[in-house]
Amino acid sequence: MMLIPTHHFRDIERKPEYLQPEKCVPPPHPGPVGTMWFIRDGCGIACAIVTWFLVLYAEFVVLFVMLIPSRDYVYSIVNGVVFNLLAFLALASHCRAMLTDPGAVPKGNATKEFIESLQLKPGQVVYKCPKCCSIKPDRAHHCSVCKRCIRKMDHHCPWVNNCVGENNQKYFVLFTMYIALISLHALIMVGFHFLHCFEEDWTNLLQAYGLTREGTAEARISLHEKKQPPKVSSTECSSFSPPTTVILLILLCFEGLLFLIFTSVMFGTQVHSICTDETGIERLKRKHQPRERRGSWKSVKETFGGDFSPSWLNPFSGPCDPKPLRDRDWVRQAASLSDTDNTETTEEQSEERKDEDSVEVTDE
């Protein structure tokens, strides 16, 4: 249980009436199990559509510009299967991250009856979110886009149009990993494609203009008789014209490099957060809200769903089932004055001593 330094907060009392529960509408009845979660945010929806468009663009260029025109069928089949599998897993992970409840706290549960049912004892506090009128359990934070408090909220990602929280962090990690892999794979294939086609086109060009020893005499006779320049076919490298092919490949290179860097950084950040059991928001508040941390391996297993297995890489298998919140999960322990920082001002200390009989809780 996290110790909360009381001097960091305001408008606080142990008694329910100080939380103004009469302003809270009772929570709605929970929907049926499996109800889809979707955030109606214009920016997030646009970013999600752009994400799908860019993946499908990469799919188009890889298949119709590089693999299908290739004469090496083994190369085309192997790379086509690998790229399509990674792209499918990336899009599936994106859908799961976007349509999974990240761990939203029941909305409007900060009612007088619910607060009284917790039977708070001296030294215990509860936190009400004034924006969604919910009692916030430990490690929950309010998202202004989702308009809900989210358990273990790391950040709100517009690319998945959702918060990254307790229930969907695994899918977000898999999404960033698979996007980084298909970006790297596409860049490698583009590199091989350029090398192969440039070598082949230069060879054909030299032979067509008779710049090789064997073809010099034959090329002179052919050019003299036909009175027209030789044609060099590039259909073996692409079904499109050379300028179109170059433009498509350059755009794919730019997209692949950009997303490789971005998703690799995000993947590393998320893995670090899981291993250290510290979300991005908690990292920013570390100085003000110290807390105990779990072992890194335990946090990893809870995020990915049990002991290590291939299901860790499967976006269709969920993390460990979250335990239902119990009464004690809504309650936190207030820190005593002796536990607070030594840098407190005299004014802060005097304000805290005005009412020593009441235990403080806050509107966060």
TrEMBL record:
The way it spans or sits in the membrane comes to: Multi-pass membrane protein
Q: Which UniProt keywords apply?
A: Acyltransferase, Membrane, Transferase, Transmembrane, Transmembrane helix
Q: Where is the Palmitoyltransferase DHHC domain?
A: 128-286
Q: Which PROSITE patterns match?
A: DHHC (PS50216)
What subcellular locations does the record give?
Answer: Membrane
EC top class, as a word: transferase
Catalytic activity as recorded in UniProt: L-cysteinyl-[protein] + hexadecanoyl-CoA = S-hexadecanoyl-L-cysteinyl-[protein] + CoA
Any Pfam family hit: DHHC
Record's keyword annotation contains Ligase: no
Q: Where are the transmembrane segments?
A: 45-67, 73-92, 171-195, 246-267
Domain of life of the organism in this record? Eukaryota
> Which Enzyme Commission numbers does its entry carry?
2.3.1.225
Instruction: Output compositional bias ranges, type Acidic residues.
Output: 341-350
* GO (cellular component) term, any one: membrane
Listed GO molecular functions? protein-cysteine S-palmitoyltransferase activity
Instruction: Kindly indicate whether the keyword Manganese belongs to this entry.
Output: no
Location of region: Disordered: 331-364
Domain remarks in the Swiss-Prot or TrEMBL record? The DHHC domain is required for palmitoyltransferase activity.
Q: Which family does it belong to?
A: Belongs to the DHHC palmitoyltransferase family.
What is the protein's name according to its record? Palmitoyltransferase
Its organism's taxonomic lineage begins at:
Eukaryota, Metazoa, Chordata, Craniata, Vertebrata
